[in-house]
Amino acid sequence: MEIDVSIFAPIRFAAAVAVATLLGTAGPAAAAQCGNSAAGFESWKQQYAAEARARGASPTAVSALLGTTYAYATISADRGQKSFRLTLDQFMAKRGGSTIVARGRTLKRSQAALFDQIEERYGVPAGPLIAIWGMETAFGTQRGNQNTLSAVATLAYDCRRTEFFTDQLDAALKLVDRGLITGETRGSMHGELGQTQFMPKSILLYGVGGSLDNSANALMSTANFLKAHGWRRGAGYQPGEPNFAAIQGWNAATVYQQAIAKIGAQID
């Protein structure tokens, strides 16, 4: 999955105060020196591990961090994102929009009880949830095979968006402490996890029911995210309508937002 991390960082997660409360720190560590190649990663990792230990990370979390390696594939993917520059029609074709709609309509019928339960609790209808599910992982079939901690640690070390991914790494270490991930957990290239691809901090803030590899948990968590980003029960979610802003909170790439709205409407 491609993620436009250069633009979604400011809006995909909750306010820093809430995050600081969850992570037990007032902000990201800044002492470890970032770098733009693998050369300094090992020394950065040792320094960051010491900082994490001082902030209260468990021996298990620190050990998992020390087991990470520089993720060349993640850096390559981060430098080569192109699909968000496509037109809506091109993007829909590339991502298999018509296939997502067809499969999504079937899933809406076969899992009607689940989607009814989610809508009753969060106010979010099936269409946009199924659209996100299909767009992110082809309904759970393509969740990635990149080591999650290595991906997030590499991007925290990288100088492009150090602060953003330092927050993600702190959250990932907290997930290790809670037993939700391990040093062996695998996901997508930027550290996204589960059937709808949550970043580590979003798992802390919006995760519902346990592992997001479970489709029901992932869909409820996605609805929880959208509700927290202003979703209004019964309001429209097309561009210009009230709930489109919540979709914008999920991913800031305009073409992605438009695709989710269009696919969701066709499913609904």
From TrEMBL:
The keyword rRNA-binding does not apply. This is Murein transglycosylase. Residues 1-31 form the signal peptide. Transmembrane segments: none annotated. PANTHER family: LYTIC MUREIN TRANSGLYCOSYLASE (PTHR30163:SF8), MEMBRANE-BOUND LYTIC MUREIN TRANSGLYCOSYLASE B (PTHR30163). It comes from Alsobacter metallidurans. One of its GO terms (biological process) is peptidoglycan catabolic process. It holds the Pfam family SLT_2. SUPFAM superfamilies: Lysozyme-like. The keyword rRNA-binding does not apply. GO terms for molecular function: peptidoglycan lytic transglycosylase activity. Keywords: Signal. Gene3D superfamilies: Bacterial muramidase (1.10.8.350). Residues 41-237 form the Transglycosylase SLT domain.
